[in-house]
Amino acid sequence: MVQYLLERIIEFFHFGYNGAPNAWDDDEFPWLREADSMVHTKYPYVIHAETNAILNYKGDNKDLEGATVYTTLYPCQNCAKFLAQAGIKRVVYLSNKYEGTVDNDAAATCFNYCNVQCEEFPKELQKKFMVSLLPDEGINLEG
To answer: Over the stretch 83-129, which tens digit does the pLDDT of each residue have?
Structure first.
């Protein structure tokens, strides 16, 4: 039964990543946080992990309706719009690092109006659960 459940979870498990648009070589992408001009930083171009996960999903978009998304940080206001539009109904995050900022408040407002439940991943489990994108590491549950 556990094997069956893991197979069903992995079947729908999909990753997103912060990155450049597909046609833009990551080696040529301006990954800088600060530069002489905002145009030379990553900020006007990077696509956040939440949005990339939706855009790169190869299944039927109806599969996303009612889904739960797990993120490192509480989503920004742009990602909040994409998540709500995709029908995501629950967001579980590790950190609300930007709590109290205008961007964060706008995301919270979007989630509230769109009935998207947000919750912090339980602190007591944060150090016990790890997902790695590195080969041969995968999902690791400690404890």
So the answer is: 999 999 999 888 899 999 999 999 999 999 999 999 998 877 666 55
Active-site annotation holder among 7, 28, 34, 50: 50
CA distances from 42 to 2, 6, 30, 55, 61 (A): 42, 36, 5, 19, 28
Q: What letter does residue 38 receive in the DSSP assignment? A: G
Would you state the structure tokens that stand for residue 17, as one six-digit string?
Answer: 């990543």
Residue 140 is inside which H or E element, if any? strand 139-141
Helices in 13-139 by DSSP H: which ranges?
49-55, 77-86, 102-113, 123-126
Catalytic residue status for 50: yes
